[in-house]
Structures are given as C-alpha cells and as structure tokens.
C-alpha cells in the first residue's frame, strides 16, 4: 500500500465502545512492515462471504476488538489478490489469488505445531471474529503462514474456501479417528441441513464416493434440492417424513454430518448412526434449548456399537489446502456447481446494510457475498 501513499481505507466495522451499530469507517491502511522479518503480504480484498457468525457479531452477541481498539472490522470468509510482498516472502508474489485462514497462533502446544484450530487457550484470536480485524475492508496484511494460494481456475469460488475448510476438517478427522478400525470403508453418509455447510459437506462426501443422503426441511423442488441432485446425492424433505423415520428405510450411516443449527437433531443423529459410525457436529448453538432424549438407548448404542462424535469448527491451513483440491475436483466433475451456491451479491462495502439484510431476511439465500473490488 505504500506505493499508493494512501492515508486511509474503508472498512465495515461493529462498535465495541458502548454504542451499537455497524458502520462504514475510514481506517489507516495496513503496512507490510506490520508483519516482522520482512514477511508481510499485502492483499487487496476482492470478495467476502458472510454467514451466521457475522450476523451474531453484528448483533453484538460476541466478538472482541483488537487490544486498544474500540471497534472490530468484521468478515472472515475472504478472497483477494496479492498486491505486494515483503523482501523475505518467497511463497507468494504480486498477482497471486489468495484466501486467508481465520484462527491465529496462540500459546498452547497445539498452536506451536501449527494446529492452532485445536488450541486449548481460553481466549483465542480469529480474524473478523475475535481480537483481530477481519476482511470486510479494502486491504489487509498477513503472514504467508496464514495465506493460501488459490489457482486461477477457482477465482469464482475461492470465497467458499473458509466454509469448505470447516467441512474438510470434520471429514478428515472422521477418517483419521476411524484408522483405529483398520479396514473402515464408509459407504453411506447422511448430511443434516442443506445450507452452505451442508451442501459443501455433500460435495466433499460425494467426491469420496459415498452414497449421500441430505435431509432438510423444505419440500422439493427447490434450489437446494436441485443442487443435491446435481451431485448424484438424494434429497429428503423432513417436513413430510421426519429424519429419524426416513433413516429407518436407508442403509445405516457410516458418517453423519450435522449442519442444521438445531441442536435436538444431534440426538436423533446419535440414535440412528450405524455401528462403527462417526457423527460430525458443525453447528454452533449458543441458545438454551432443552430436549428430552432416549438417553439409555443412545448411550447403549454408542458403547456397544463403537460409535464416535466429533466436532468441527474453524480450520488450519491443511484443511484450506484440502478445500482447494476438492473444489478443483468439483469443477472437473460438476462444472459450475459450487458457483451456484453464491445466490446473492452486494456491490461495495458501502452496501453493508443490504448485505446484512440479505443475510438475515433474504429469500432463497445460500451464500451472500460482498463484491469489494474488481478482479482484473
């Protein structure tokens, strides 16, 4: 940014100084020398996706600003182009297309080995979420460790890599856990929810050759059901046949990926999970909902059936790179399938109110993105 001699840039931020609201603000532009050792990477933001986490942060439910600041620049699903690099950056060059990971290194032993998404720190750093500014801005600077190159062929879907990384982490860990079984070869997968995460989970599981069944509330035909069918997966409407009932007519699930945001479904999934199966939970449910469950039956099934439950949230670089691989395979297999997940676009940071309105009240929304700048 030094070459432009700019004195400010625009960003979308939420106040954390006692007042409320979201605003377009002017802030000092980032500098390469903010990253020590000549390792800075300056990125011009092209596109940012928003999700339920952003909605909760913008509503003031959580999200601390960086130390000494009274505001938090939001946005954690990034896609951009490298504008400049420090003298000791050899992994990236100006013109490279990139995404940034979200979690940053903390103080735990897990952070020290690069698995900062598995930190045991109580207060962790996430760009655009907690203690570090995010990407709903014209530019950002970061370290190459957290900056992942995206091939030009994925320029239209690169903004989906952050949610894809959450899916990749959960599925990769399911396979890693099941190495204990020596010959585990999953055949059937259930995906609960047909939003962005659920559809991406179906994509990744289909790429691994599983028979995938996606369960969502709305009756077909609808956009989400059509996207499921395009993958060669099967869509089930729970409005007409409840999940637990529909599952009885299908082969036992070796993997269930839960992405509904509705915690009672977790216990239904635990109840129907097949022997030696893995249930992956991706919903962050911050409410106080309670539900009565068949506790003895679920417990007995897990003990006698060698079942596992694992959670997935955020991801380190490894899973972003897996996402790049799988999106490339998806393009080769299904063409523009992933691009069809981006249903709504808002032009420019100044339209942040429209962005939030679409996220909260939009009809037929899957993924909403802000087009921050043009990609030549």
Summarize the structure in words.
The protein is α/β, with parallel strands linked by helices. The protein is built from ten helices and 18 strands. The chain has helices at 52-58, 109-112, 161-177, 196-207, 223-230, 243-247, 264-272, 295-305, 317-334, 352-361, and strands spanning 9-15, 22-27, 41-50, 71-73, 77-85, 97-100, 126-127, 131-132, 139-142, 147-150, 188-192, 211-216, 234-237, 253-258, 273-281, 308-311, 342-347, 367-371. The strands form four sheets. Strands 3, 5, 6, 9, 10, 17 and 18 form a seven-stranded mixed sheet that branches. It has a six-stranded parallel sheet with strand order 13-12-11-14-15-16, with helices on both faces. A three-stranded antiparallel sheet has the order 2-1-4, with no helix packed on it. It is globular and about 65 Å long.
Topology pattern, helix = H, strand = E: EEEHEEEHEEEEHEHEHEHEHEHEHEHE
**Shape call:** globular
Individual helix count = 10
Residue share in β-strands? 25-35%
Q: Taking Cα atoms only, what radius of gyration do you get, to the nearest Å?
A: 21 Å
What does the average pLDDT come to?
94
Structural class: alpha/beta
In the predicted model, the low-confidence regions spanning at least 5 consecutive residues are none
Helix content: 25-40%
Largest sheet: 7 strands, mixed
Overall strand count: 18
